[in-house]
Amino acid sequence: MSSTGQTADVSVKNSSPSAAASMVAAPPAAFEFLDLKAQFATIREEVINAVTAVMESQQFILGREVRLFEEEIGKAIGSRHAIGCASGSDALLLAMMALGIGPEDEVITTPFTFVATAGSIARLGAKPVFVDIAPDTFNIDPSRLEAALTARTKAILPVHLFGLPAAMDSILDLAKAKGMAVIEDAAQAIGASYSGRPVGTLGTFGCFSFFPSKNLGGAGDGGLITTDDPALAERLRLLRVHGSSSKYHHSILGTNSRLDALQAAVLRVKLRHLTEWTRARQHRAERYRRLFRESGLSEQMVVTPHAPRDSVHVYNQFSIRVRERDRLREYMRQHGIPTEIYYPVPLHLQPAFSYLGHKRGDFPQAELASLEVLALPVCPELKDSHQEDVVNTVAHFFRQRN
Ligand SMILES: *Cc1c(COP(=O)(O)O)cnc(C)c1O
Predict the structure, then answer these.
(1) For the segment 111-145, what is each residue's pLDDT rounded down to a tens digit?
(2) How far is the CA of 91 from the centre of ligand 1 (A)?
(3) How is domain 3-24+273-401 classified at the architecture level of CATH?
(4) At the top level of CATH, which class does the domain 39-270 belong to?
(5) How far is ligand 1, taken at its centre, from the CA of residue 209, in Å?
């Protein structure tokens, strides 16, 4: 399962350079990187009942389920308004449409993220302006923001990558001083907080995704935008239904981007379990740190994710940094241990963004991270023994090389 691809199983196989290049047969993974079947088994009845109720109502577009879900998740996130939409990518797109961002505008963001972050900026005809990441957090480096500002900068789009909030104080201060909007890409970070404030409530907008591999994943695609601004919330509600407040009357140009009632029904069930699942992820992360300490590997060999005191990390991914990442990954694969790479190519080096004219060396920290990151399984359903296997296999790899 991958947050980089839309058909999860296929994307995992195709995104693995070692799997494609290697002719050596490996045993099938001993367990799942993300075990959604095991998760479903724990909520099966609740989900089936919720889905059945929607089928019986035959109300699939917006309506009661979506309204209730928006109320419940708005409360859970701590935002006044929560607007469901068709995907996390659309959440970003709609947020920027609500701000009127388009050609001639620039939006500052990170090159080390899923393609949708910068893709949605470009899709509106605006220019994504990349700022390199801080190596310890993988998030946009606040000390480099000011140098990227121009008279055309309309917004900053930080990503809370892997579930760790970006350095929001610096970002918000700068945005305020320059009169810019802040759009939080919180697709991987539902439930995370920064200085006691939940992500999605810090900027002008928070954008969330319910892609199945996210911490709150639906039974398909879905997304959400949060805002405290009632006028912007109203605009978003119009934009997602072709700018229509009454049937066939269109005040502004929008699009079709709604959250399905079926998705809302499933998400309402899963939202009730989110706190417990998040705690399980955090527990797994702490256990990884302890197991790596006990393994005797030096902290230089395996760098575990940074956990700043002022933030709550929700570990959509537990990404370590290692040298010889590709060899380690292949060794893990040979031993039946599933891992993933988020992200193997930073956005400024993707062919889709070649028109921006960037070259290797422009964002060295993002480039280095793309060579060194390795995501280890951290889902709530992971067994203790499997987690020990993960750490032992990493330890074996480094021991046999020294
Ligand atoms: C998943 C993701 C998105 C897009 O969400 P979709 O629901 O898949 O469209 C955007 N940004 C980041 C950082 C993501 O991880």
Answers:
(1) 999 999 999 999 999 999 999 999 999 999 999 99
(2) 9
(3) Alpha-Beta Complex (3.90)
(4) alpha beta
(5) 6
